[in-house]
Amino acid sequence: IRVKEQHARTTTGLNNEFRYDNVLTGSNNKTIYEAAARRHVRSAMEGFNAVIFAYGQTASGKTFTLSGTDEEPGVIPRAMRDVFAYIKATPDREYLLRASYLEIYNEQIHDLLASGVGASRVPVSLQGSGFNVTMSPLREEVVTSLKAVRDVMERGESNRRTASTDWNDRSSRSHSVFRLVIESRERSSETVPQSTTPAPPGGSRLHTQGASGVRMSVLSLIDLAGSERATSDKERLKEGKYINTSLLTLGTVIGTLAENASKSKSDYVPFRNSKLTRMLQPSLSGDARISVICTLNPSPSALSESLSTLGFASRIKKVALHATKKEVVDHEALIERYRQEIEELKAKLAEKDQKEHKLNRRLSTREKADEHRDKTDLNLRLKQLSKLILTSQTVDVPADSGAASPTKLDFDLSPYELQEELLSAKRRLESQETQILALEAALSARPLLPADAAEDDKDKLIAELQRANRELTFAVQGYEENLGEPLRQVKEDVEKEWKGVVERLEKELRESKEWAKELISDLEKEKQ
Predict the structure, then answer these.
(1) Residues 368-390: pLDDT tens digits?
(2) Measured distance CA(407)–CA(148) in Å, rounded
(3) Alpha-carbon span 150 to 439, nearest angstrom
(4) Are 345 and 381 in contact (CB under 8 A)?
(5) 441-456 pLDDT tens trace
(6) Average pLDDT, rounded, for the chain
(7) Which of 476, 459, 387 is nearest to 430 (CA)?
């Protein structure tokens, strides 16, 4: 991009030119995705951390580029489709996907998927340093389809802070981060002989069978709030101050990293000066493959901001990256904990089958019923866990386009339409099963406080556990309300409704036959 002489700054590049990997015009998100994001999504599926973020002035098209519309999907929906397409085309590995959605608003990190509204949500804290920055508490939901990803995004978007500005009627007032944690492992072959070496305590049988480790990577898609000019609105002024400060810190960090890389220096990098740069520290330090989409506002009045954006893009190209694939110890990966539980459930079922075969004749009717109930529960849990682990055979690439089923059935529908309603109800059950498992995983992964912790910390932990317990209770109640008796009642109501219709039609048919006989009799009498 060449800047005209009358608009150039003293800091503009050589010959007033800026050089980048791609310069694109228009609003075709497919072209942008192919040029700037697709290879990074593939890298994330192969085990590398990957970051894609949009940077630019307010109203320059960042949110449209990342999220898009139904007619013109953005980078995020296209990336999620490619994630499932990659799983579909990779038969030798199995995957577990966990999605989270957060925002940085006025220098506080908020979980957009957490329960509560606005200020009632507990802020997310950053812990660790260097390549080991973690966030807690952060809700991650296991996703098994494009529809589940869309549900997560829609819930997150509904909680994100937006407001009207001089440039945009609905402007993002916060930085948002959509994260997809990708765990994968080689699929174990049933023909591989089992090793006699016992599994390590708390671990799995994966390494004892000679298989490779578990890959874990994070795909982060970031929509940065736009830089703000001064405004008379006090709330917008406060928001703009925090937004500009975090963007300025990001620019300083990028500039320091670029200078360190180009001059082989090791100057201090101020990652801790803002929550945004602290959160991005592992990625900006080189442990990720990064793609930056810088958007420009074509308005002449936005020239100053456009030149700043061009300068930022030039600096970030100089940052040195050295991302590597990450393999974790078995028991650190959720996919391995699920896989181990699946193997344990299969072993329990096999043991019960053997026991049932030996003792079947000696068991009472009640004992047989108890055994049958236990096996049913084990099979249900096994089925739930198996659905969460995605393979090329189980993943469904096309997006689900079916509308949600109404809560009340219209019995005037045709039998085919009623079958569609019942199928939709079953899909809701599967979604609730996934939600229950995600809540259970969140509870099991939550760290406990030490015995000597402060009373305030204990009270806070108790309150968080009670809230999570209520969420789990609501999910279970919703799950149970859709099982058993309600479905049987629907079936009975449908049969009863159609039975009445059939009886009415049969009655009308008999009456028609009798009326026809009377007509024939009257005709014969007239002939005589």
Answers:
(1) 777 777 777 777 777 766 777 77
(2) 20
(3) 19
(4) yes
(5) 666 666 666 666 777 7
(6) 76
(7) 387
Gap between the Cα atoms of 62 and 55, Å rounded: 7
Please tell me the distance from the alpha carbon of residue 205 to that of residue 210, in angstroms, as a whole number: 9
List the structure tokens of 443: 């509870």
Q: How far apart are CA 461 and CA 409, in angstroms?
A: 43
CB 175 within 8 A of CB 223: yes
Q: How far is CA 300 from CA 1, 296, 297, in A?
A: 16, 11, 8
Task: Decide the pairing of beta strands 134-136 and 50-56.
Answer: unpaired
pLDDT at position 364:
67
Token pair, residue 213, equals 């480790």
Tokens coding 433: 């099963």
**What number of other Cβ atoms are within 10 A of residue 177's Cβ?**
24
Cβ atoms of 95 and 255 closer than 8 Å: no
Annotate 115-182 with DSSP letters as a single string: SS-GGGSPPBEEE--TT--EEES---EEE-SHHHHHHHHHHHHHHS-EE--SS-SSEE-SEEEEEEEE
Could you write out the DSSP letters of every residue in 369-389? HHHHHHHHHHHHHHHHHHHHS
In a 13 Å sphere around the CA of 259, the CA atoms on its Cβ side amount to: 10
Q: Give me the amino acid identity at 436.
A: I
Contacts of 206 by beta carbon, 8 Å cutoff, 6+ apart: 185, 188, 213, 214, 330, 336, 339
Distances (CA, A) of 325 to 36, 39, 207: 21, 15, 18
Cα separation of 213 and 203, whole Å?
12
141 residue type, one letter: E
Residues 74, 79, 83: CA angle, nearest 5 degrees: 155
Residue closest to 246 by CA, chosen among 306, 301, 298, 173: 173
Q: The pTM is what?
A: 0.64
The answer to whether the peptide bond before residue 486 is cis (omega within 30 degrees of 0) is no
d(CA 81, CA 396) in angstroms, rounded, equals 10
Q: pLDDT tens across 406-448, in order?
A: 344 455 556 666 666 677 677 677 667 777 777 776 666 666 6
Q: What is the DSSP string of 275-319?
A: HHHHHTHHHHTTSSEEEEEEE----GGGHHHHHHHHHHHHHHTT-
The tens digit of pLDDT for each residue in 218-275 reads 999 999 887 655 455 666 677 778 888 888 888 888 888 888 877 888 888 888 888 9
User: DSSP assignment, residue 362?
Assistant: G
Q: What are phi and psi of 234, to 5 degrees?
A: -65, -45
Structure tokens at 285: 């330090």
Question: Which residues are CB-contacts of 152 (< 8 A; sequence separation ≥ 6)?
Answer: 99, 101, 113, 141, 143
Distance CA 111, CA 101 (A): 6
**Separation between Cα atoms, residue 196 and residue 224, nearest integer Å:** 53
DSSP H or E segment with residue 53:
strand 50-56
